[in-house]
Write a structure and sequence with these properties.
Shape: globular
CATH topology of the largest domain: Rossmann fold
Strand order of the largest sheet: 2-5-8-1-9
Number of helices: 15
Low-confidence stretches: 1-8
Radius of gyration: 21 Å
Number of domains: 2
CATH superfamily of the largest domain: P-loop containing nucleotide triphosphate hydrolases
Number of strands: 11
Helix content: 40-55%
CATH class of the largest domain: Alpha Beta
Length: about 325
Amino acid sequence: MNQEAQLLAEDEVQEAADTCGRVLDEMNEVLFGKPDLIRLTFATILAGGHALLEGLPGLGKTVLAKSFAAALGLKFRRVQFTPDLLPSDITGSYMMEEGQAGREMTFYPGPVFSNLLLADEINRASPKTQSALLEAMSEGQVTQFGERMPLEEPFCVLATQNPIELEGTYPLPEAQIDRFAVKLEVQGTGQDVLKRIITERKDAEPEEPSAVTDRDGLLELQGTAKDIYLPEAVADHISAVVTMTHPDADGASEAVEDTVKYGASPRAAIWLTQLSRALALMDGRPGVGFEDVERAAPAVLGHRIILHHGARLDGWTGRGLASHIVAANREEILSA
């Protein structure tokens, strides 16, 4: 009986993996040369999280968000963050209108009432406006005049961010950046990819991908991802990795003690688990493996590890340190 249940689960996982594969195929035909970025972004959506995409303008961040919405059949909205943007421009607001019973307040929902919201150049808006997304991202609702209005599931924010060294940018507060399941670095485009773009796209605009699934289908995929089995050994690995990001933890490496000011939050362990489950599902595996943790860790932990200023001068980054911790702990497990 248990074997039949396991076989049924494997069939379900394979069917979901096939759907995921078609989504990835569509996305790779839109955004050339960025398979890892596409894969981790999709894993974030499957895990029910939000992603922060950092990179210089013109590298395809907006195309990535719009194309995922099309491939997944989701309601898409975009907000261009500017210094004069108000919180109500995101959440919506009440307006006084003349009705049959006289004047009455009518709520006009903002762009946050969507399935996939692109928060474009989020660090060009003021901190007050940036924080307007906080309740929606963490609780899936908006509160106006004491009234709570839930957002439709699924709800995912893909926020783009310019490097903070650029003029006119405001670094996101640590409390808000922790709300993003992952921070992904959008790299430049190589010569071969550039040649493909200019030869295959004469108008420079990619075609919109075909819809592989819809809102209900994505919710089903998200439910399957949550049911991916987490072996105890992998759970021990995840908890140890997150613990080892703290310089005061027992057994913290010398590199962590010398470079880290604050380690990752418990939320990091949750998202590392969920991203690992999603990556396993995309590969058609019913259980999480160590390799899934290794692929997800830099994106999940990198922006949550706060380094001393001198650490960056020595060449350390949060992502690099996360990879170092994962590799060291896995090696310790294998040698035990």
